[in-house]
């Protein structure tokens, strides 16, 4: 009698089919052929010298993208959430105070992560679409005396680009590390880690970088490393333990690297290529291109009679635009219609913005006038064809 009782699934006897799609939601964005092809290179060992060289190139690329001299700069194997947990699990010990700024879902998630490892978490809360003044932040820092303050630079659930000037200095005045989420913003909006006094900065590969999801650039300042390497207890996660990751990425100055986990080498190839694309264009040119496309898009939306969810112009995220959900329509019908008819992804809200907004992401290579025109035409078409209630 055969020991195999589960038959081979029929579905896997059919070829893989993946459609082409315009990825204009808040991520992932389209991956250009050049970056896809880089990922199709042969798999070699994750400890081979050629891979270490590729990892070193990635480090240099991230230092450029983040504008930092930090030695402790690398890419976590995993998505943006992995980098979030890497930042929080390494810097925070059980019982310590953490402050998160909540103006959308990302501050809520950071608070939950810190809570799960036993931190005492406090939040400052702004309405979706809003942001915080430096006075509000200083008040909370002086009240709660956190070891870490979390802020999302690009709040992709609400479309807010948070001003960052002066916050790093405030954190340092209160002996607190400044942790910034730039998953939705870096490369698409001005951000200089060292100048802003940011202690931990992370992003994801699948937004402005146009690489497949699965790697997450992160960087730690000297101050952050001081705290992390003087912990009383080990971080709860072995996989995300900075001392192991630092060695794997050659950031700890030790002569040899020790096996920690099998790095996703093909994802490293794609990430390296995406950083090479950014280097070729130049960071400032990329910021400017995103800003121009966003302004062109916002003008087009307003001329169609649609309203932008973020009232203050300078706080509008150039990469992810939030549009007030058009009155009388079911937002879900609009996004479904656009997907079906235009083969184009845009999305509804997330967390506190569900039901309030439509979200359109134009990131990296997707950020162009031609794509803005495509989205505007799709929206016009949807508003003509989707059901509008009379009330
Ligand atoms: N932070 C922000 C601002 C994001 O937009 C996202 C992804 N939508 C994440 C964190 C989490 O990234 P991931 O989905 O890659 O885990």
From TrEMBL:
Where does the record place the Aminotransferase class V domain? 43-373
Give the EC number(s) listed in the UniProt record. Answer: 2.6.1.44, 2.6.1.51
Q: Which UniProt keywords apply?
A: Aminotransferase, Pyridoxal phosphate, Transferase
Q: Which CDD domains match?
A: AGAT_like (cd06451)
One CC-aspect GO term: peroxisome
GO molecular function terms listed in the Swiss-Prot or TrEMBL record: alanine-glyoxylate transaminase activity; L-serine-pyruvate transaminase activity
GO BP term, example: glycine biosynthetic process, by transamination of glyoxylate
* Source organism, top-level taxon: Eukaryota
Sites of N6-(pyridoxal phosphate)lysine modification: 207
The identity of this protein, by name, is Alanine--glyoxylate aminotransferase
Q: What organism is recorded for this protein? A: Zoarces viviparus
